[in-house]
Amino acid sequence: MFVHGLCETDEAWRIVPVVRDELHRGSYGTRLREDLGYTPLYLRYNTGLHISDNGRRLSELLDDVVRSWPVAVEEVVLVGHSMGGLVARSACHYGDRDGAVWTRSLRHVFCLGSPHLGAPLEKAANAAGYALARLPETRPLARIVNGRSVGIKDLRFGSCVEEDWCDCDADEFMKDRCREVPFLDCATYYFVGATLSRSQDSPIGSLVGDLLVRYPSASGAGRKRRIPFTIDHGRHVGGANHFQLLNHPAVYEQIHGWLSTAPVPA
Question: Which of 63, 108, 137, 178 has an alpha carbon within 20 to 30 A of 77's alpha carbon?
Answer without folding.
Answer: 178
